[in-house]
Design goal:
- The chain is α/β, with parallel strands linked by helices.
- The chain has one domain: Alpha-Beta Barrel (TIM Barrel).
- It is 33% helix and 19% strand.
- Strands 1-2-4-5-6-7-8-9 form an eight-stranded parallel β-barrel, surrounded by five helices.
- Helix 3 runs parallel beside helix 4.
- The chain starts with a strand and ends with a helix.
- The relative contact order is 0.15.
Length: 247
């Protein structure tokens, strides 16, 4: 049964990786939440996509150069004034911490995909910090998936706790995917939709190990549901959830 994950929350209509976007995705009825993390200069783990503040906040510069308190002074809603549902209240949205997002998601028993953004900035001990936060919140380990493009990050996580679920993010074709899954002890591959939909017959063999991103078109959502992939990660969870119910 294919599950629907919200990509950075309900990103298509609300400020990405904001508490507002996560709440809207929950209202839509998602099974899982996908979001990204970075680390501040004072060692706090925050939920934001880019290594810099520039694109999605009113701040400038690298997250690693700011404390959490400093980052909280920036809005992550003001940049979305052109969105259809924009409301001035969005301007009060700030970068959330990993703890805050997990505390929201645990209330609704959601699966959570934590993507560690470690391929541009190397955050010392981010793996240890993330595992500790998940443990302290009391999240069910079976409902947490740790993903990354940077394979060493996944290997370090496994060294710290071999029981956790890890998924390798890929935007390029790989041969013999099941060999990667078994050898690297991966729970799943998180694949760019273009790779999977470009050769659906090839990827059918490992469909139950695939979460596919970022799937927003109705026909693409339907095709992947028919394939039986593990999950679809989408900017428009409200659309995907409805299509899933119709299946």
């Amino acid at each position: 049964m294919t599950k629907i994950y919200a990509h950075r929350g309900s990103k298509g209509n609300f400020p990405e990786n904001s508490m507002l976007a996560f709440k809207k995705a929950i209202e839509a009825g998602v099974c899982g939440m996908e979001f990204d993390i970075h680390m501040t200069s004072d060692g706090e783990v925050v939920v934001i996509h880019d290594p810099t503040l520039d694109r999605t906040t009113t701040g400038l510069g690298y997250i690693k150069d700011y404390t959490l308190a400093q980052i909280r002074n920036f809005s992550i809603g003001e940049k979305y004034a052109e969105f259809k549902y924009y409301d001035p209240s969005w301007d009060k949205e700030v970068v959330p911490t990993l703890t805050e997002v997990l505390e929201l998601c645990i209330m609704y028993d959601l699966e959570v995909n934590i993507e560690l953004k470690t391929y541009i900035v190397a955050y010392p001990s981010i793996e240890e910090a993330v595992l500790k936060i998940v443990h302290d919140v009391g999240y069910d380990p079976e409902k947490i998936i740790y993903s990354a493009f940077h394979l060493p990050t996944l290997l370090r996580l496994k060294e710290l706790d071999e029981t956790i679920k890890t998924a390798w993010l890929l935007e390029n074709f790989i041969p013999m995917p099941i060999d990667y899954i078994n050898t690297l002890n991966l729970e799943a591959l998180h694949m760019d939709k273009k790779i999977v939909l470009g050769k659906p017959d090839y990827w059918q063999q490992v469909a139950k190990h695939l979460r596919v991103w970022t799937v927003n078109e109705e026909e693409e959502i339907k095709k992947l549901i028919d394939m039986g992939v593990l999950a679809i990660i989408t900017d428009y969870p409200e659309i995907a959830v409805k299509l899933k119910k119709m299946d």
